[in-house]
Amino acid sequence: MTAPSDVAFSPAVKAIQSARGSREGYARMERRGGWQTEVTPDLAAFIARSRSFYLATASADGQPYIQHRGGPPGFLRVIDPETLAFADLAGNRQYITLGNLSENPRAQILLMDYANQRRVKIWGEARVVADDPALLVMLAPEGARAEQAIMFRVTAWDANCPQHIPQRFEAEDVAAALARKDARIAELEAQLANARRSGE
Predict the structure, then answer these.
(1) Does 135 lie in the same domain as 57?
(2) Residues 109 and 16 both lie in one domain
(3) Residue 151 lies in domain
(4) What is the rounded distance in angstroms from the CA atom of residue 155 to the CA atom of residue 84?
(5) Do residue 184 and residue 146 come from a single domain?
(6) Are residue 64 and residue 3 in the same domain, yes or no?
(7) Is there a single domain that holds both residue 196 and residue 132?
């Protein structure tokens, strides 16, 4: 690759960009340094808040597979500026991701923040670690049974514009906001009742 974005902008992609008028804009971006290749503090903070992500892998012959991963904030960990990791929890035992990674390490993580209408795409290579109990203990959410860990080496990442991202909120965040609103209403009603009694 001559630019980090070449992980996504293949010659075929660049040809279409040229035909449709967007190549020069992306070429300017590439000349300025292009996409990031390490986890920045801003990205680390974004990852630490995330409750879910999508993991894309492909078989040796290119058949794609996308799997949703979810957990408490922080279940996807930044190990160092080039490495992410997460516990691979017991599931439906199809093992499609594991099979794909055994023959093709290339992978992508898509993080969505619907509330703030932000998305981050991270390209890299992933590998399965099944023989490190201490790593599993560190990565597994409390009470979860981890079968193995998946380590993800970052190649490049890009944060997209918010266009077309529907705004959605986590149920627990909505419940907390409603609880605060209800508490404030109760406080104001109590103040109003006191004011009325004082005026009698």
Answers:
(1) yes
(2) no
(3) 36-166
(4) 11
(5) no
(6) no
(7) no
End-to-end, the C-alpha distance of the chain in Å comes to 80
- Spatial distance between the Cα atoms of 19 and 198, rounded to a whole number of angstroms: 76
pTM score, two decimals? Answer: 0.83
What is d(CA 124, CA 84) in angstroms, rounded to the nearest whole number?
10
Q: Which pLDDT value is given to residue 132?
A: 93
87 close to 136: Cβ distance less than 8 angstroms: yes
Domain count, the chain: 3
SS (HEC) of 128-191 = EECCCHHHHHHHCCCCCCEEEEEEEEEEEEEEECCCCCCCCCCHHHHHHHHHHHHHHHHHHHHH
141 and 119 within one domain: yes
Q: Determine the pLDDT at residue 127.
A: 97
State CA 171 to chain mean position distance.
Answer: 18
Q: What is d(CA 81, CA 58) in angstroms, rounded to the nearest whole number?
A: 25
Write out pLDDT tens, residues 31-74. 998 999 999 999 999 999 999 999 999 999 999 999 999 999 99
